[in-house]
User: What shape does this take?
Amino acid sequence: MSKPDMTQARVMKIQKGTVITLPSDFVDAIGQPYALVILVMKDKNVKLYPVDSGNVMYLKLEIEKLSKSFLEELTMVFEKAGLEDILFTSGICQAASQCYYECYFTPEQLKISPSDLELHMKQISGVQKVILKKVPLTG
Assistant: This one.
């Protein structure tokens, strides 16, 4: 008895537009009505994350000075906010002399308001700027 394949693949044509069309067997296997689509700029990879609603938030932290306690403080804020399911994170990235942290999540899981989340993020050691916004829904 053979095990099912762990992945499926198709080579598809890339065209400009606001809709992604997938083979029907992919859509059936995904089983969700929406997807967060992310273009990772450094390697030009496109990542697709199935979600059950079109409501997804983007969080970016600009970090002036990366402290040893940054990840611990970030984890504590996430726990306090009820933010357990991060769809995608860049991790901590350095660009020139600046550090950044980016992530995407569904706001339905939050135990606090997005504005309170933003306030808590601003209190993390070394955080210079917080950007928290809804990801546009297209298509």
